[in-house]
């Protein structure tokens, strides 16, 4: 990215307090809140568990999940993506419930050939239905350093943040007949896996296994959500938690300005504007701020 454009973007997105900006996470070791889920030998622990690395080779990828299930809260992770030729790989960080009619909130980082930018895909599943993909280029190299990827989820909205900059909002439009995730507790998951049948240029670019192992690094394993493994109803009580307070129920006008800037500069796909897939605009897309 041109250095002048990058500086202008940074100046635009910084300098103003964001009303719905989430609280800062506290560093805790991986094992306090998370456990490996598969291919344990492909997870490396560093600095007493304050950092981990996931690796992918032509044998397997790997992943982890939270110990508890949560209903609303703020969830974040600092991640450094696979460097170099990452085509065909996907680094995923997401919330998901269980069952055929599951809810899910996704960050998916789609690798690319060396020198080509990563693509960040977000998606929201409600009641088992997804197909709400949005894709953006990031304004930095996500493999060059750790960056923070966060989800703020309450009964009013789901907000996606990259380094505290909002990149997407999915509102509770239940009144319009749009399902919203509000009663199924979700676990947090992350994984590094091979998806060269679709991830890079629709599957045209295949994973170069000569570059394996591919490594993604993680820090920041705090979780600030309502654990609902046993008592989901207590988590749904509005006003009980900080993320339910008025200032977190919507973005403010400065955040919407940043969101519009991200969309205008970096969006490469938005299901809301895909007339081939959706000749009738989805109900949740009819309000401009919710696109």
UniProtKB/TrEMBL annotation:
<keyword id="KW-0964">Secreted</keyword>
<comment type="function">
    <text>Catalyzes xyloglucan endohydrolysis (XEH) and/or endotransglycosylation (XET). Cleaves and religates xyloglucan polymers, an essential constituent of the primary cell wall, and thereby participates in cell wall construction of growing tissues.</text>
</comment>
<comment type="similarity">
    <text>Belongs to the glycosyl hydrolase 16 family.</text>
</comment>
<feature type="domain" description="GH16">
    <location>
        <begin position="16"/>
        <end position="218"/>
    </location>
</feature>
<keyword id="KW-0808">Transferase</keyword>
<dbReference type="InterPro" id="IPR010713">
    <property type="entry name" value="XET_C"/>
</dbReference>
<feature type="active site" description="Nucleophile">
    <location>
        <position position="104"/>
    </location>
</feature>
<dbReference type="InterPro" id="IPR013320">
    <property type="entry name" value="ConA-like_dom_sf"/>
</dbReference>
<dbReference type="Pfam" id="PF00722">
    <property type="entry name" value="Glyco_hydro_16"/>
</dbReference>
<feature type="active site" description="Proton donor">
    <location>
        <position position="108"/>
    </location>
</feature>
<keyword id="KW-0732">Signal</keyword>
<dbReference type="InterPro" id="IPR000757">
    <property type="entry name" value="Beta-glucanase-like"/>
</dbReference>
<dbReference type="Pfam" id="PF06955">
    <property type="entry name" value="XET_C"/>
</dbReference>
<keyword id="KW-1015">Disulfide bond</keyword>
<keyword id="KW-0326">Glycosidase</keyword>
<feature type="glycosylation site" description="N-linked (GlcNAc...) asparagine">
    <location>
        <position position="112"/>
    </location>
</feature>
<keyword id="KW-0325">Glycoprotein</keyword>
<keyword id="KW-0961">Cell wall biogenesis/degradation</keyword>
<dbReference type="GO" id="GO:0042546">
    <property type="term" value="P:cell wall biogenesis"/>
</dbReference>
<protein>
    <recommendedName>
        <fullName>Xyloglucan endotransglucosylase/hydrolase</fullName>
        <ecNumber>2.4.1.207</ecNumber>
    </recommendedName>
</protein>
<dbReference type="GO" id="GO:0016762">
    <property type="term" value="F:xyloglucan:xyloglucosyl transferase activity"/>
</dbReference>
<dbReference type="GO" id="GO:0004553">
    <property type="term" value="F:hydrolase activity, hydrolyzing O-glycosyl compounds"/>
</dbReference>
<dbReference type="InterPro" id="IPR008263">
    <property type="entry name" value="GH16_AS"/>
</dbReference>
<feature type="signal peptide">
    <location>
        <begin position="1"/>
        <end position="19"/>
    </location>
</feature>
<keyword id="KW-0378">Hydrolase</keyword>
<dbReference type="GO" id="GO:0048046">
    <property type="term" value="C:apoplast"/>
</dbReference>
<dbReference type="InterPro" id="IPR016455">
    <property type="entry name" value="XTH"/>
</dbReference>
<dbReference type="InterPro" id="IPR044791">
    <property type="entry name" value="Beta-glucanase/XTH"/>
</dbReference>
<keyword id="KW-0134">Cell wall</keyword>
<dbReference type="GO" id="GO:0010411">
    <property type="term" value="P:xyloglucan metabolic process"/>
</dbReference>
<keyword id="KW-0052">Apoplast</keyword>
<dbReference type="InterPro" id="IPR008264">
    <property type="entry name" value="Beta_glucanase"/>
</dbReference>
<dbReference type="GO" id="GO:0071555">
    <property type="term" value="P:cell wall organization"/>
</dbReference>
């Amino acid at each position: 990215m041109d250095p002048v454009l990058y500086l202008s973007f940074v100046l635009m997105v910084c300098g103003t307090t964001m009303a719905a900006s989430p609280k800062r996470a506290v560093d805790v070791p991986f094992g306090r809140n998370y456990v490996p889920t598969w291919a344990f030998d492909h997870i490396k622990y560093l600095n007493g568990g304050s950092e981990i690395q996931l690796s992918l080779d032509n044998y397997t990828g790997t992943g982890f999940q939270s110990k508890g299930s949560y209903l609303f809260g703020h969830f974040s992770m600092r991640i450094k993506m696979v460097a170099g030729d990452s085509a065909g790989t996907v680094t995923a960080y997401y919330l998901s419930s269980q069952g055929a009619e599951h809810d899910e909130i996704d960050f998916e980082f789609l690798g690319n050939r060396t020198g080509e930018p990563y693509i960040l895909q977000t998606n929201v599943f409600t009641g088992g239905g997804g197909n709400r993909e949005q894709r953006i280029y990031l304004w930095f190299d996500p493999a060059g350093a750790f960056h923070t990827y966060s989800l703020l989820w309450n009964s009013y909205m789901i907000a996606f943040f990259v380094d505290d900059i909002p990149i997407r909002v999915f509102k509770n439009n239940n009144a319009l007949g749009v399902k919203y995730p509000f009663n199924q507790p979700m676990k947090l998951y992350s994984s590094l896996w091979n998806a060269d049948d679709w991830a890079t240029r629709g599957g045209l670019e295949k994973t170069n296994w000569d570059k394996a192992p591919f490594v993604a690094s993680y820090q920041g394993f705090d979780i600030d959500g309502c654990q609902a493994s046993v008592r989901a109803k207590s988590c749904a009580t509005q006003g009980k938690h900080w993320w339910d307070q008025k200032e977190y129920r919507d973005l403010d006008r400065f955040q919407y300005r940043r969101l519009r800037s991200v969309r205008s500069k970096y969006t490469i796909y938005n299901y809301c504007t895909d007339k081939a897939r959706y000749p009738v605009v989805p109900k949740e897309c009819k309000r401009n701020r919710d696109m």
